[in-house]
Amino acid sequence: MISLGQVPLLVFALTVLMILQMSINASILSSAVSSLDNEATIEATTLGNLMLGEVKSKAFDSNALDQTGRPVMLYNRSQLTPASSLGPESSFDSTITNEIVPVSQTLFLSWKYKDIDDYNRYVRTVQTQNLATFVIRDSICYVQESNPEAVSSTQTWCKMVVVTVTHPNMSNPVIIKSLIAYTRS
Amino acid sequence: MEAAIQLLIVGLILLAVLGFVGSLHQSSYEKTAAIVLQSNLVAISSVLESDFNKIGYHAGKPAIQRADSVFSFLSDLHNSGTVCTVQYYKSAKLSTQDQGLCRKVSGENSIYSYVHVSKLNFAYFDSTGIPTSTLAAIRSVNVMLELQNPQLLDPTYKYSDSTAIPSLFWTKTFYIQN
Question: How far is it, in rounded angstroms, from Cα A77 to Cα B145?
Fold first, then answer.
């Protein structure tokens, strides 16, 4: 039989083993969380850049296109859409601004939007095969031409696009900003 | 009797330690594979971005030579005045599952990256964003690349972690500027 003197040693050894195992398990879990965060961040960055590319491919302003979709030259800031009216045209279906699509279909949504303004307050939920849903939110505003960090309440020749991508696995959202300037060409 | 009990206790402790070490190894293997997958994707996407941003650079029109599952275009990749033909396609290695990405530049050796490509899709759009296959009308190209975790290629391997990610994707639309 085990002597009484050995019992505390045995209990101590088992306790040490248990604590060690628990701390290692916690470390494994923490690295798994970190790995999932990284994977979500990579895919969120991809989706954010895809959205940014889509926005940048559009006309600078709804007034920079005529009824047939051809470019119209603008020479005065007052010809641009007022800052308070940035957003989809009223003729748009309201459901268009909250779309839920698989990632393979995001490419085919692009034709619905004509200009950068249409993406203001736009929300797209993208479903991916592995990491489920990413929520992409867009925000468009005018910024001062002399100081692009400062938002302008009046029309300017520069618009700031802010794309925010969130996912439950990410501790912080991915935010991608880009400045778009009007060019007459 | 006393020896048997001691042996049982030692055996139990040994089993616990061995199980513990085994799970550590498996976890380490899976995490390493995930990191390799992430690193491969980032590296490949950098190469693709570098090349695709130069579609048609210093080249005549049409710059796009082929637009199906193989994407081929003209570009002065190195800004040396020499226009070369660049080709991208998915290439098989040992099995249909284990595929790589091939980058072929005229005048250079082909580069095969066996990074377990599970998907490589090209989609071509005209100036209005409508899909097209007419070479001269193509104004943007979308690339969808998906890399698979190599562990999936081993059917005997079972994930210890049900949340492990089997694959990662990267996609980008390139607007042809040149």
Answer: 42
